[in-house]
Amino acid sequence: MTIAATWGASGETLSREAFSSIGQETAVKAPADSSATVMTIDGTDISLADYLYLYNKNRDQQLTPMSRRDYLDLFVLYKLKVAEAREQGLDTTAAFVNELKGYRRQLSLQYIPERRLRQIAKSGGGRITYLAIDRECDSLEAAEPAYRRLLEEYHEGMLLFEISDRMVWQRARDDRDGMTAFYESNIDSYKWDEPRIKGYVIWTENDSTAQAVAVTVNTLADTDDMEAVKEIRKRHGRRVKIEHYLVKRGENPSIDALYAGKPASGPEKRWTHGVAMRLRLVAQPEGIADVRGKLTNDYQEYLAKNWETALRRRHTVMVDYNVLDEE
Questions:
Q1: φ, ψ of residue 326 in degrees (nearest 5)
Q2: What are phi and psi of 319, to 5 degrees?
Q3: CA distance 73 to 222
Q4: Mean pLDDT across the stretch 13-18?
Q5: pLDDT digits (tens, 9 = 90+) for 121-144
């Protein structure tokens, strides 16, 4: 009897608890057959060997190794993302094709015997051409499973990167409206537990430059931050280094000193004097820029989860736990 779990058009996703309960129904244990089908994704069979190859490779890199079942969801999502990348034709662009071709050739040199390379060079008048290497690559793909597997793994890794960039990272960079809406919907998550010192410091090399910068700063009271920074750079050029700070009290002694109206040296030996500009204490974030790092990470996670949910709804995955549990 085959016990199978399915992700289908309904979009229902089995939890790990569900995986466990299904597994408890599986009583038959047979000798492991690596060619057996452990799952199908939209009708395409995945062998136990293919599953265990990536499972063992990831397991070796984990401090606390995952069980086969714990790894299942990661594997399925990996395959679904790669499939979507193929559907979008991401492996047909010239840049993708050329990078994969270069790796294919480079990898082949680990499998082509030195003697064979000498034969190729001799037949080519002392030269080894790309055409000759490509022929060897074709032969290796047909005859050498390890080469074929590594090449496929690299191919899928490239696809995973490209589709993740398109669906998550690039969107998080470019979708300002979406990020703003996400921030406003979760604004309580970005509140601080203590105030921050926020503002600019113009670092200078000597006291005379610092005094001149201080005069400039006083004349820019009515300009916005970016215009003030631009004007200081215009007037004082390379004699200054302008830094923006957003720190807790106690995190940066130099900023603490300048905020208190005391002198402070800069982040490098060259910068011996600091001039505070709009350095103030703020109780809570004044906008997205004040929580950019955490917000970007959170928004990427949000986009990734929504994407993964959509993938599960669009694809049908059936898992044979009898095969998965075989030892």
A1: -65, 140
A2: -115, 130
A3: 56
A4: 33
A5: 999 899 999 999 999 999 999 999
Q: How confident is the model at residue 16 (pLDDT cuts 50, 70, 90)?
A: very low
Please give the single-letter amino acid code of residue 99: E
Residue 42 DSSP code? T
- In angstroms, rounded to a whole number, what is the distance separating the alpha carbons of residues 291 and 295? 6
Indicate if the pLDDT at residue 274 is higher than 90: yes
Exposure string of 46-76, with b = 16+ CB inside 10 Å and e = fewer, is: bbbebbbebbeeeeeeeeeeeebbebbbebb
Question: For the residues 279-295, what does the mean pLDDT come to?
Answer: 96
Q: Which run of H or of E encompasses 317?
A: strand 317-320
The DSSP secondary-structure symbol of 200 reads: E
Cα separation, 164 vs 20, whole angstroms? 30
Q: DSSP characters for 201-216?
A: EEEESSHHHHHHHHHH
| Structure tokens given for 139 | 């032969």
Encoded amino acid at 184, one letter: E
The runs of H, that is alpha helices, within the chain are 16-24, 48-59, 68-87, 94-108, 114-123, 130-143, 145-164, 170-174, 176-185, 207-219, 225-236, 253-259, 292-314, 321-324
CA distances from 322 to 19, 25, 77 (A): 12, 10, 21
Among 64, 294, 260, 273, residue whose Cα is nearest residue 172: 294
Contact 195, 307 (CB under 8 A): no
Residue type, 25: E
φ and ψ of 46, to 5 deg? -115, 125
14 has a pLDDT exceeding 50: no
Q: Say what the pLDDT of residue 72 is.
A: 95
pLDDT band at 18 (very low <50, low <70, confident <90, very high): very low
pLDDT, tens only, 159-168: 999 999 999 9
Cβ(207)–Cβ(273) under 8 Å? yes
pLDDT at 32: 56
Residue 172, Cβ density class (10 Å: 0-12 exposed, 13-18 middle, ≥19 buried): buried
